UniProtKB/TrEMBL annotation:
InterPro entries: QcrA_N (IPR045603), Rieske_2Fe-2S (IPR017941), Rieske_2Fe-2S_sf (IPR036922), Rieske_Fe-S_prot (IPR014349). The lineage of its organism: Bacteria, Bacillati, Actinomycetota, Actinomycetes, Kitasatosporales. Keywords: 2Fe-2S, Cell membrane, Disulfide bond, Electron transport, Iron, Iron-sulfur, Membrane, Metal-binding, Oxidoreductase, Respiratory chain, Transmembrane, Transmembrane helix, Transport. It comes from Streptomyces lycii. This is Cytochrome bc1 complex Rieske iron-sulfur subunit. Residues 1-44 are annotated as: Disordered.
Length: 355
């Protein structure tokens, strides 16, 4: 019986040759497909043989570094010139903030030009000679350290940073100016808040305006069991400072039967059982918006701090540190609810100046 696939059936001409040839005293396997082909002949760049081309590359690198410096100056100028609420149309992006667009564009150009200049410098002017280096042990022997330092000095010399002063000076200028972008951004850390956290837009005579309808509130608009959100008269939703002001002045208004109010000051500061408390939770500043009609408790949805509106809005559960501030209210001659002053303490989370 013949065996299919036996070695006897394979022609010897298709088997790897076991013959060896001797060449210059060494033995090589004939037709070895893994033989080291060696390095191709080195091809010199045009900058290596033509100084005029090298000068052009030098000027190109210097131009990129100079553009980076100009872009950094434009970044700082944009930060000063454009107001934060200015909107412009940029095709094809659409309507964007002029400040954000200019800051992103100028900083991107500044960083890109530094990178492009460094790459062009390395590809056209630094040494382009291939160097084969044998592997060495991981531990750093004294000889290795000496070789590294020698290679560093050689690389520094081949980079021509000492000879190409135009590139060196413009590169140092670009690298020195880019950090100024971050320094300018520190302006947003100030000015200090001073006593701004202690005051809101509420003052004597300010009407309580329904935040949903933008209409002034009358006592009959607030019924027992309802929860109404209000803002100060004159604060418009499209105002540039709306978010920062409503974060301090937002009110929640409820009506409670006067006999159910336990805290004397709360009763004195109310009008016919209508009480107004800050809507900003005293834990981390979330909006308090969940109201339980039967108990007159309000709950912050973020961390479940619970306040009793019948007892000075004191904390009865959760991580909040103190009661919600109350706003003293009354009714003006036209029958509208009005504030009788500002909050007597800062609204929102506790901060280090409270006391």
């Amino acid at each position: 019986m013949s065996q299919t696939g036996s070695n006897k059936d394979v022609s010897e001409e298709h088997l790897p040759s076991a013959r060896a040839t001797e060449h210059d005293g060494t033995v090589e396997a004939a037709g070895n497909p893994f033989a080291d082909p060696g390095l191709p002949p080195h091809e010199h760049r045009v900058q290596d043989i033509d100084e005029r081309a090298a000068k052009r590359s030098e000027r190109t690198v210097a131009l990129l570094f100079t553009v980076s410096m100009l872009a950094t100056v434009a970044f700082i100028a944009s930060y000063v010139i454009f107001p934060i609420d200015k909107i412009i149309y940029v095709f094809p992006v659409g309507h964007v903030s002029a400040l954000n667009f200019s800051l992103g564009l100028t900083l991107g150009v500044a960083l890109f030009c530094i990178g492009a200049g460094a790459v062009h410098w390395a590809r056209t002017l630094m040494s382009d000679v291939e160097v084969a280096d044998e592997r060495h042990p991981i531990e750093a022997e004294p000889e290795v350290k000496a070789k590294v330092m020698a290679d560093f000095r050689q690389g520094a010399a081949e980079s021509a940073i000492g000879r190409r002063k135009l590139i060196r000076n413009t590169m140092f200028g670009a690298l020195a100016m880019v950090p100024l972008s971050g320094v300018v951004l520190l302006r947003d850390l100030g000015p200090l808040p001073e006593d701004k956290l202690r005051h809101t837009l509420w003052e004597k005579g300010k009407l309580l305006v329904n935040q949903n309808t933008n209409e002034p509130l009358r006592p009959e608009d607030v019924v027992v069991g309802s929860l109404t959100f209000a803002k100060p008269e004159g604060l418009e939703d499209d105002a540039h400072d709306f978010q920062s002001e409503i974060a301090k002045a937002a009110l929640m208004i409820v009506r409670i039967q006067p006999e159910d109010i336990k805290d004397k000051r709360e009763l004195d500061w109310s009008h016919e059982g209508i009480v107004a408390f800050s809507k900003i939770c005293t834990h981390v500043g979330c909006p308090v918006s969940l109201y339980e009609q039967q108990t007159h408790h309000v709950l912050c949805p973020c961390h479940q701090s619970t306040f009793d509106l019948t007892d000075g809005a004191r904390v009865i559960f959760g991580p909040a540190g103190h009661a919600l501030p109350q706003l003293r209210i009354g009714v003006n001659k036209d029958g509208y609810l009005e504030a009788l002053g500002d909050f007597t303490e800062p609204v929102g989370p506790s901060f280090w100046e409270r006391g």
